[in-house]
Amino acid sequence: MGADFLLGLIVLVIKCGVVMMVVMTIAAYLVLFERKLLGRIQLRYGPNRVGPYGLLQSLADGVKLLLKEDLIPEGADTILFLIAPGLLTFTTLAVFALVPFGGNIHLFGHTVPLVISDMDIGVLVFLALSSIGVYSVALGGWASNSKFSLIGAVRGVAQMISYELPLSLSLVPVFMMAGSLSLTDIVNAQSSYPFIVVQPVSAAIFFICSLAESKRIPFDIPEGENELQAGFHTEYSGMRFALFFLGEYVNMILFGALMAVFFLGGWRGPLLPGPIWLLIKIAIVPFLLVWTRGTMPRMRYDHLMHFCWKVLMPIALANIVVTGAVMAALG
């Protein structure tokens, strides 16, 4: 019993370390990818001076942010100001513990599942953890003692809480069809076909809400550089400023992974190993998010809320009813 527990603990630590290393590395180079792709879209050069083809730009940016002074505004709530940037990154990384990266592998006579924690209520844990990320925006803006930051925080909280509802409802048909809230079971239920084939409406709603939850254009209302100077993180500098952006890019990867798990068959695919297929499918969402940023303008705030409550919500609810009716008719 003691040996098995120790082995399980070692495997768990290794899994966590590998996932964090891969996710953080991808997030760092996703910034470079975005700057390169936006340069192409906007007919200008992207980063091309630090290392061959600009490949060391992410390292240079990290060093630059580490060397910048970490300022705390006068009158700020120091404790909340210091912890707010890390909340979003922490909760987003925690959700990766639920993502299945492949099937089981056999290692030294033991069966090792390529998932950190396969919970029976994985979907509910994901929704719970993602809702905690709202506090990062709220506390960051409020604790800064700045009116611009506070307005950005209020916008961000309203936006994120609102779009969590259609995002959650878009997943109801998925676990109705899978018969489980476990992410592994949802992937296994797509052995014949990916759910996007029969649930394109749910997939579209989930993608749009992912844009809003990531605070990406056209939903970057909480930042609004031309009206709020940078929104809820106006007063941040150095690595605490970088943590907000790290959380944003990790969030992009997370929603790519969840899009793959819920609608694209997860790690399933021919010829290539499961983790490779998952990475290919994950890459689709960040690419679309960057493409959207380079081509669409920012929405007006009232239009943004109208679109959520009067368009996405009714469609998501109607989709649940139609899915239930079809499943009941088919038996």
Strand order of the largest sheet: 1-2
**Biggest sheet statistics:** 2 strands, antiparallel
By DSSP, the count of extended strands is 2
SSE string? HHHEEHHHHHHHHH
By helix and strand content, what is the structural category?
mainly alpha
Oligomer: single chain
Tell me the overall shape.
Answer: globular
Strand content: under 5%
Low-confidence segments? none
The N- and C-terminal alpha carbons lie at a distance of 46 Å
How would you characterize the overall build of this protein?
It is a single chain. The protein is mostly helical and 331 residues long. The protein has one domain (2-44, 73-330). Helix content is 68%, strand content 2%. It contains twelve helices and two strands; from the N terminus they run αααββααααααααα. A two-stranded antiparallel ribbon has the order 1-2. A hairpin with a 2-residue loop joins β1 (104-107) and β2. α2 packs across α10, α3 packs parallel to α10 (238-263) and α6 (147-178) runs parallel beside α12. It is globular. The protein starts with a helix and ends with a helix.
Task: Describe the SSE topology.
Blueprint: H1 2-41, H2 57-67, H3 78-95, E1 104-107, E2 110-113, H4 122-132, H5 134-143, H6 147-178, H7 183-188, H8 200-213, H9 225-228, H10 238-263, H11 274-295, H12 301-330
Antiparallel strand pairs: 1-2
Helix pairs in contact: 1-10, 1-11, 2-10, 3-4, 3-5, 3-10, 5-6, 6-8, 6-12, 8-10, 10-11
